[in-house]
Every structure is written in C-alpha cells, then in structure tokens.
Batch of 3 targets.
Target 1
Amino acid sequence: MSDTSEHIIVVGAGAAGLIAARELARAGKRVTILEARERCGGRIHPLLAAEFGYPADGGAEFVHGEAPVTRALLSEARLSLQEIEGTQWSFDGASFSRESRHDPHEAELHAVLGELKDDLTVTDFLRRHFAGPEYGRLRTSIERMVEGYDAADPARASILALREEWMDGGRHTQARIVGGYGALIDFLAAECRRHGAAISFGCVVSAIDEKDGAVVVRCVGGDVHGCNRVIVTVPLPLLRDIALPAAARAKAAVACDIGFGSVIKILLRFARPWWREVKLDLADMTFLLSDQTIPVWWTRYPEPHPVLTGWFGGPRTAELQSLDPQGLIDAGLDSLAAIFALPREEIARDLVAAAATNWAHDPFARGAYSWAMPATREAQAILARADGPVLFSGEALYRGRDMGTVEAALASGLETAGMILRK
C-alpha cells in the first residue's frame, strides 16, 4: 500500500533531484519537485538536434570511468554508450604532436603519492616534491589537468582527493550516451511522473521554514508549499540564496570547504570538417590541447558530425568574465585560427551553428561542478547527514572518486533517498 502520508519536496530537477524523487515516489511517498528553470536537467543542458545535427550537450557530456549508477540507469532506459576512440593531439604554438600520456617522472610521482599520509594542496605538493627544473613538464601537465579537467584551483585543491585519478594516469574510460544526457534526463523525468511525482517549473525557492515538525517552502513570487521533509539539490553557490532553519543553515555553512569550479563550453558546427583537410593526420582526432585562449577542443569522432567543442575550465576562466555568448564564440574562432594558422574569416565562413555558455553566468548554476579541498571530505560528511527535515544532496556531496560528475549526482541522490526510506 502506498505511503502518501509523508510529503517530500525536492528542490531542483537535476540528476540528483530526479533520481531521489523517482526512488521516493516509487516507494509510495508523495513527492513534489520544485525547479527554478523551465526544464529538467540543471547542468545537463541538451541543445536542439536541428541546430547541431545530433542531440548536443551544452553542459555535461561524458560518462567518466566505471559509473555504475549511470550504467545501470542507462540499461534500464535502454540507452547505450559509445566509448571515446581516436587520438589526442597537442599544439605547442608551433607544431602539432600526438599527445603522449607518459611522463619520464611518472613512476616517481606514483611512488611519492603512494607514500603520502598528510593532505596538501596540489601547489604545495609540487613545491615540496617536484620543484626542480627537470620536473617542469610534469608540473605543467598536472596544473593543466587540475584546472582544465577538474575545473579546480591547484593552490586550493586536495592532493589526496586527486591521487586515485593520477595513479592510473588519467586513463580511465570516457564515453558518451547515444542520444546525449538529455535522453537520460527525459527517462528520469518520465519515471518520476509515472510514479506520481509532480514537477513544477519556474519555482525559485527563497526560504525553507520549520516549525513544530512542519516544513514550509517559500518561492520567489509568493508560492508556498507545505511538506514533511525537503531535499535541497541546488549547486553549492545557490545555498546562500535560500533562507534556512538554524540547524540546516549551520550544516550549509560548511559548503565553503568544498571547491566549486567554472567552465566555459563552446560548440561550433561547420559545413565540413575543415581541420582534416588542413592536416590529414587529424582524421581520427578526439582531443586537441593548446595554450590558446580556449585551450581544449574535441571532435565527435568516430561520428562524422563536423562539430568542434571548445572547453576552458578552472579559475582562469575569470579572464573571460566580461564576454557574452557571442564574445565566447568569437574567442573560440580566434583560438582555432591561431592553432591552424588560418584566417579567422575563412573558418567563420564555414560556421553553420554555434552555442556558448559560461556556466558562471548561469543564474541557477553559477559555475560548473565541485572539487575537493583538504577540508572537503569532512564537510561532505556533515552536509550529507540525514539529521532533521532539511537534507542536502548532489554531486558536491559525493565522497567517491569521480566527484563533480553526473555519476556523483546520481549516486548522491540515491543515497539521500535511501536514508529517508530506511528511517
């Protein structure tokens, strides 16, 4: 028999909110999802297939590593994964080279990491153990990975949290969902509704009040919702915008010990894959790394879509803070022109469609995803506690290896729902 006596409100219809709501509704709870946007998905942002020739991802795109929760959900949704194939290239300002993942000091790095007991920031770790000029390439490679891949600040990021990622040389698998992450979000949203959960769009939560065991959620515009419990799944920077009961406010205060990074993502669709014509070796190029303003680019290889995606992550994205989407697209074209030694106008002539997002400018994200500082694991444990009617969930609370991913959000949402159902 369904237990509809307990009403649970989930704030946010991203991956964590949707999977938590699905689990709770499936168990017979009465569930309402309040979403600030006019769509589900949060930092998963599907773009129109008509514009890019396939269901492109303006936000999260890759499935990283083992991702057991994601893979189980994909199986349930009858969606498939395509593993990333092809060659990674680098451009050093003068020439192209196939990117070598091997560094001559890799074994030494692994040995030092393996013996490390006390946490340090990445910058302090490199200063203490790899300061010499012979380690210059290793330091640059590590800093570029921390900033670009983890969207983190090396001067504040935890070395112990990144150790596992580095011990396998960053070689764990990456894949894309056929149909994009939007297909997975569509499945979860449909599942929520099928099990009776209500999803309300345009609901910006401003306050959560608690009195005598009853909880009231207030939205900008005056809507008020009564419930028994609330799961807050918004990105970390938005927590400070929500007035919380004293106990929940004390918990939320530790969020300042969890890093939150920014990412700029640019998608450019061309009439043809001109980069292959410029350099025949690039026919199977997946990733291209450079020191240009937009430093990382990737293709859809092995798919034939003539789309290049530009990526810039980490604290240095603040340098482009003043640029609007068109300004970011222009910066992307300038970077490609410099890399391929082509006139910018020539590249721009072939442009069919373009989209750009600085996730720091998104009012309901204010950044891309979280990363760990030395105090983060303790902060996550406090935030994830199910003590009281206001619970927190999301990728920033995930204590496993791939923090900051969709897998992290899904795993956290499942864990939060499980804690409620076990009580």
Target 2
Amino acid sequence: MYKVLYIFIGCISLALGILGIFVPGLPTTPFLLLSSWLFYKSSKRLHDALHRSKWLGAYIRRYESGEGVGRTSKVVSILMMWIMISISAFCFIENVKIRILLFVLGIIGTASVIYFVPSRKKNQSNEE
C-alpha cells in the first residue's frame, strides 16, 4: 500500500519540481530530492530512471553527493530567476505591494543560491 502511495506522491513531486523550473517562486530542488527519496523507498526502477534522466539526473546526483554546483550554473540560475521575476512584476502584477514582495523573495532566493547551495570545489572546475 505504501509503495503505491510513495510512487503517486513521487510523481506529483516530480511534476512540481519540473514546473518549478519555469515558475518563479516554486522551488525545484526540494521537490526533485523528495521524488528521489520517495522513488528510492518504493521503486528502484523509477529511482534509477530519475537518476539517469538526461535533464535532471546529473543535477540530482551532484546535489545528493555534495559535489556542488558550478559557478556558471549559479549565475544562470540567478539570471533566469531575475528575468522571470521582472517579467512577472512588470507584465502581470499591478499591485505595488505584491511587486515589492516578489522582489524581496527574489533577494532571498539570490542569497540562498549564493550562500546555501554548495559550490563546486576548485579541483572540480569543469563547468556544465
């Protein structure tokens, strides 16, 4: 019974993680890591497929191993986040308080990427 529930929740978590790549404010990493854990507990085949995934596999493996993220990836992540925040704030949101909240969350997100996401060590300088 738990196996089916874990697979179901893992699929929902994976969908939210993928959606988080494109939607500002929706986190990607926690959902992908949750999916990996749920698949590990329920289905070796799904867990292995997620880890072998062309788009997400290397990202998950590097994060789980503590290997870190390259400088280029961090810069691209922050740049894309601010592009999406700017598009959202100036094209879709008219309320000034919500715009300010969005920018504050962007600052928090930027600080999180800079200070909390592990960086790749100098001897692992191969950028993606």
Target 3
Amino acid sequence: MKVRASIKADKSKGDIVVRRKGVVYVINKKDPNRKQRQKGPARKK
C-alpha cells in the first residue's frame, strides 16, 4: 500500500475513494496493488 500526503484516484482504472475513521483510502477491486492511504491524524492507542 502506498502512503502519501495527497492521494490521486483514477476512476477509469476502478479506483474508489473511501474515508474510514478519518483516514482517506483508495481501494481498487480490479487491481488490488493500486491501494493508497493518505496520512491522517496520528492514531490513538
């Protein structure tokens, strides 16, 4: 998974932008190697 400051999603390649617990993800069912996560706030333990 790529962790980036700002993520780019390409809809034509099947990317979907998802927000979970304040963290932005790009997931892709067709090509799972295209997963990305945007650095969010520090996670609480």
